[in-house]
Amino acid sequence: MKLKDEKITKAIVERYMKKFIDNLNQDVIIAGAGPAGLTTAYYLAKKGYKVSIFERKLSIGGGMWGGGMMFNEIVVGEDGKKILDEFGINSEKYEEGYYTADSVEAISTICSKATKAGVKIFNCISVEDVMIEKNSVCGVVINWSSVDIAGLHVDPLSVRSRYVVEATGHPLEVLQILEKKVEDDLFTKTGKIMGEKSMNAEIGEKTVVENTKEIYNNVYVVGMAANAAFGTNRMGPIFGGMLLSGKKLSDILIKRLEESNKIKEKIEGIVNVE
Ligand code: 48H
Question: Whose CA is nearest to atom 9 of ligand 1?
Answer without folding.
Answer: 169
